[in-house]
Amino acid sequence: MKFRLIEEKFVLPNQRIGLRFAEGWVFLRTMGRELLYMGRPFTRGFSLVGGDATLTPVELKDDQNNPMFDITSAYADRMLYHVGIGISPRSMRVYPEYPSGRRLGRTLAFTPTALADDRGYFTGDDSPYEAPTEAMEFMFPYKTTATFGFHNVDPSKKALPAFSVLCAKYTIEILNPGDTTDADIIGKMARGTAAFYPFQIGPPENLMEYLLKPDWNIEPITLKEARELGIVKEKIERRRL
Question: How many structural domains compose the chain?
Fold first, then answer.
């Protein structure tokens, strides 16, 4: 399977993103963007993995032992991390839990994977260390973390996992369905007449619950509800053309 480079997925300032949670969608606009490597190589918290052995899930931490993609409360509703991770060595199997505690599977019918399962993992062939791809793509809004388990499939030698972590740090503006102007653009996005980048927070059958109402002051809405926003105004605009 061919995956796109993560740089091709990063959005530009003044573009829009839709985040899908278990309860529905929240839409936002990017106001600014900073690209940075947050680890190359990143090995903090990792240890040698024996031949045909596993390493239990590890959360990425900074040098002060804080979650690597932690957003402080002061920026709770103003920042979003968009991350791509490359894997080394190339044969190492990485089992993402995104958000933490929810392992990704290959199909909806699969139960959550266990370490060393022959599904639910990515390798450096999917997302090379030198060029991270969308295979290991994640978005981290406030209060969201991920962990990663490992399986060294080479029975002949130990190996130390290493990540190459490329990040787009966005400053964001959250769109409010109760605001007339925001509602118009949300409706257009949901109806397919305005571009946006949709991204689900977690595996589709086990999405992350929306915990951000106290911080974002926005309720998620369904796509059906979003499609109904601004319909009258859009019809009037079309008649004027």
Answer: 1
